[in-house]
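User: Sequence in, structure out. Go.
Assistant: Echoing your sequence, followed by the structure tokens.
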Amino acid sequence: MNAFGFKATTGVMFSLTALILIAFTPAKVRAADRDFCTSYARQAVRQYDENQRRDCGLKGGRWHSNYDDHYRWCRDNSYDKADKSNRKREEDLRRCRRESNRPDYGRPDYGDPSSDRREFCESYARTAVWQGNENRNKGCGFSGPLWHTDQKSHYKWCLRVSNTEIVEARQRRSRGLSRCGGDPR
């Protein structure tokens, strides 16, 4: 007998039983691993960013930009639960995309500020000019530096400001055109 009053074999049997249960517990029930949760958290933040860009208005515990919180939540939950959470966000975004009936021009394939800056700014300037023309053609009445149609000026401005300022300018024009009935592109 040991100090707890059990035979030594009882402790060994308990340990073996616990190991067997852990080994044969389906992966979808066990807590998710680091690699899975890294991917989960990245996707959750990307989905949140799209929600913001599109002005979907999706809210709740799964809609935030804090990578660390998403990662910790994932590590505390099963693969299945984390996968369901990402799928639910994706379903919500699909519904938003259908309702807005427009592509997501904020995606990296449209122009990611972290990619080649000149290429990104060329894309930004083309879109800014298109949005300026849409403003004029639809009679929206927006004015100021945000709405001019000089591609070279938009390009030069893009090269010298922060990524945040660029994204905000593009979003402001998109929201304005959406309210006016123009194509926000």
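User: And one key feature?
Assistant: DSSP finds eight helices and no strands in the chain.
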